[in-house]
Amino acid sequence: MKRVLLTGVLFLMLQACANSGPKPFIYADFERAKVLPYDSPPQVIYRIDDHRFVTLERYRDCNYGDTYFNDTKTSVRTYLGRAGIENFQGKLIISDPTERNIVIPSSAPPQYVCGDRGCSVSLIYSIDGGVTFDWNPFIHSFVPYKDTSEYTVLVTSDSYYIARAEGSGAYVKKFPLVSGYRYGQGEIPGGRHIEYGVKLPSDMHSPSGQERFSCDASIRPTNPDAPLK
């Protein structure tokens, strides 16, 4: 009888230990969470100039967090997305002296499974200085985290360019940015259109000189296994 009781107590203790351990990280739960619980400090992962920048916040690590566009001069702070923008591996150059046009490409975390049809990855763009953003398809890929490393996105005062490295050169597409127009609404006004096989403008840089997202992987939350709700 004692042996049976001891066995039952031991089973309950082991079950309690198993239940008290951290739950495995599940991407679907992370994506659905209303507010990420992580206490990690904000990091500036991309800086346009001294007052405009993108921050990664409430992140589990450099690949899983929330991103925001910030403009301290105009007091603009706009939520951009989760586990997407921080994973872009290519180059981003924002060289618009008017400060109206902002384009930020996205991606997907490492080991993200796109399935047998691949993933449609978008970029977001703003023509009002980051107050609002719309989206436009960027690439179709089976491994976005890896494939985005082949791309350069350049933003000017009237367009954005997408260049994909091909051999010793690059294939470039030019997308006009027109006030009041959103991609997917029909024809671009003013007789403008998407151009293919154009040249990428040279000698253009972000005011900060930064061309790639950067995240300090040594900075982690103290609660990486906090429950996602």
Automatic annotation (TrEMBL):
InterPro entries the record matches: Tli3-like_dom
Task: State the signal peptide span.
Answer: 1-18
Domain named Tli3-like: residues: 38-163
Q: Where is this region: Disordered?
A: 205-229
Keywords for the protein's UniProt record, in alphabetical order: Signal
Q: Which Pfam families match?
A: Tli3
- Its protein name is Tli3-like domain-containing protein
- List the lineage, top down: Bacteria, Pseudomonadati, Pseudomonadota, Betaproteobacteria, Burkholderiales
